[in-house]
Request: fold
Amino acid sequence: MARKSTIAFLMTLPLILLLALFVLYPALYSIHLATLNKSMERFVGFGNFLFLFKRETFSMVVEQSCIFAITAVIFKALIGFVVAHFVHNIPARGQRKWRGMLLVPWVIPPAMSCLAWLWLFDPSYSAFNWLLDLVDVGPVPWTGEAYWARFSVILVNIWIGAPFFMIMYLAALKSVPEQLYEAAAIDGANWWQRLCYVTLPMMRNIMAITALFSLIVTFANFDIVRILTAGGPIDKTHVFATWAFRIGIEGGDIPLGASVSLFMVPILTVAAIFILRDINRRAGEMT
Amino acid sequence: MAKDNCMQTFKQRFSRRHFLATTAASSLGLAMPHVRGAHAAGKLSLGLWDHWVPGANNATTALINEWAEKEKVDVSVDYIPTQGNKLLITITAEAQARSGHDILSLPSWQPADHARNLEPVDDVMAQLIKENGAVTPAVEYLGKSGGKWLAVPSTVGSQIKGPCSRIDLMQQHAGIDVQAMYPVGAPPKADAWTMDALLKAAEACHKAGFPFGIGLGSTADSVDTAGAVFQSFGANLVDASGNITVKTDAVRQALDYYTRLARFFPPDAPAWDDSSNNKWLVSGRGALIMNPPSAWAVAKRDAPQVAERCWTHGMPAGPKGRYAPFLPYFWGTWNFSKNKSAAKSLLVHLSQRSSAEKMVQASGGYDLPSFANFTEFPTWAEEGPPKGTLYHYPNPYHHQILTTAASPAPPKIAVQIYTQGIMTKLTVRHLQGESMEKALTWAESEIEGFMRT
Reply:
């Protein structure tokens, strides 16, 4: 038994080392940076974090990150759920083709697809506005007005992320035993009841894990906002990562930038604790 | 016999006197790159800004190779693009790691930002200023810290972001003859070219359907224009001593003016980045943009009928002077560089008149040397169409004060004002209905946050 554990450990060692090098070391280094003063010569403890609490723009960034992540995850989950059901009901022969096509937004490198979206939203040459103009609708300031800009970055995030939900939900749907639906049908359950009392309970863990994973990735998003709006106009679309970059790299205040990026950790930790606790509780109930 | 001859030769070659001379020469060689023998003076690595003009890097490479051949230094050059902030990230990473290139291209704010990691170049600058003339106060402001020169202003990448006007549209709709105002080969006749004239022209061109393409985003082009306009009114958000001076009459006056002007910008100007104004000019939709001649150069390639009607000229004068946005690039060497003496020698070579002239020519007139004696190269007079369109680009008659947005605030504070685009955001807030006092209070609060040390 001990020998098996040793072999298992040795086999995972390369991955552990990679994680330590590329995840743990940068994480610890950014914690170290976050405790330094602006010129990185003096230890200031939690000074940078306390400073951030007093900044109006930072409060706005926290609010925007939450709006961005929560709205995007909710819509990605809804769209993923609906599309997964549609795909699930397609006959097996044509299903692979649809699955492949629907995954395209997710597999294209985000930087590339964002550039295409940028062209569609371009302040002066928006392809969408050109289409709207054909039906006599005035131009929409997709990235020029705060609320439209927020809408645009969330829309692109949903477009990129919804296929991930779709494929996860599809896998979950396929794992629901057919007998459960048959039993429900015998008991006279209608479509809605089958969804509420069979499908959803059987998918809950996958849904929770997917939501958690997506929440983390969406919260830490950088490329979409950076490419589409760079946080503008007047900072109304900044999220943690873009704001940290603006302050740390562009503004030359690396400790404060590191502090902004580390702010995501407690927020995501709380979300992870709640979601994982729920999953564990249900796993306990099932056993 | 042969062995005896050999010993004799050896003794002759290494006499005591010869040994001492050799030792002295070797010691000297450690401090200077002028050592004979293939690559005897060591290695030198450069990370330079990747020029957007095709072929412009070749001129720099040729100059570096010319120097390397003469000095017997093994040189390697990496051209680093600014897309995706790659150059900025490289600079930051090298400063953190205290390892990397011996010479790096440093965008405007970077010398001050990395002051403690840069090798002072007072000796190089003293020599260059003596040979090439003085540098503008903007270069001194950005390249000097604590009384020491931290970097050498580079010809490559340095630019003035003055107006580039459509000759026909300005004449037709605003009644302004930009060619007469800025004639080729003669000093500007621009006394009537004031901020009021700019406002009237903006309104007229807007009415005619050709708005001025000036952005209000947070990227450099937008911020630089706002900075120059504010300074024309004597409006500084922070003074040279680091005091916040947001709520002053000068700032109120500048904000009021710029907001009135911004009403005639395209409605999506708050979302513009540095490519938006270029596209605006090239598409033929605007009568004026604020940009170095890159937009004109692209038009020359993609829309020649637009390019041949463009004229690059000086900024309008405000109540406190005629200020033009100047964005110099620098070449710096780290204090942890392994071959500082060679690096300094190369920086001197790259800053010679002949080198600067080659760089200017290779960039089609885009690159601007920072030295006073280098503003009359033939490239600017000859480039076209129309011929002479760039003549006044390098400010040959020094009738404009070259400035950097957010100066004269101490650079550590100014860089934050600049990168956060405080002046453009202030304008957008006021433009979108926020009261002036509320917008100024917001700016004051933001700037207070930049004061941390």
Notes: Residues 1-38 of chain B have pLDDT under 50 and may be disordered. Chain B touches chain A at residues 85, 88-89, 92, 96, 109, 113, 116, 216-219, 266-273, 276, 279-280, 283, 285, 412, 415-416, 419-420, 425, 428-429, 442, 445-446, 449, 452-453 (CB under 8 Å). Chain B has two domains: 43-158+328-367, 160-326+383-450.
